[in-house]
Amino acid sequence: MNNTIRTIIVDDEPDSVQLMRLNIERHFPQLEIVGVFTSSQKALLEIPSLQPDLLFLDIEMPVLNGFDLIEQLMPVEFSVVFVTAYNDFAIKAFRFNALDYLVKPANVEELREVVVKVEKRQHLQADQFQVLQQQFRKGTITKIAIPSQTGVTFIDLKDIVFVEAKSNYADLVLTDKRRILISKTLKDIQFVLEQQQFLRIHRQYIINLNEVKHFNRNESLLTMSTNDVLPVSRLQKDKLIEQYGWL
Question: Which of 7, 44, 100, 199 to pair with 53, CA 20 to 30 A apart?
Fold first, then answer.
């Protein structure tokens, strides 16, 4: 497993950027800084292609603040740590599923706590992915095991209607409409599920092809057996039609 944590810093204050960068380079060699931005607008354009594991994100920035930036990037497949000069935004930060929240200037010990959290999350996700890969190598599988900190949950593939991205997590939506939150991103589970009867139709959704109820071709909307209506991206629309052999 690659232990390097690809890290991005977004902050419009050069002094804050310099301090954060200095602390990271001196104390946390496992963090590889792959991008530094003082403009949130530029960060919005560049972050997806840089594929970070960790984002240190200032909240108070002109034009596009930290919360606005994350909203436009959603769903994200990396850990977000909000950084600010004030305590006022803490509650809102955690509504965005932030991994942590730091008040400037963050000291080395506070950064260390963040790094430990990121490493724990990466190890858990790696363990989960390994279990899924092992199951797949054994041949056709009918169930997947979802490890957690309290045990393992076994889910029948046929009972999964769709998977929805939730920041650094994902919801498995079942035929009985239950939702099971797992600490994996859509990217992590796409490889395994798409070997079965599943297809990614959107950056936020993977569907069970056997659970599609209706396809509105004009509006590119799928109605699932649970009556959830999901969007189909333009790029995936042709692939969906090809899977079904629709005319």
Answer: 199
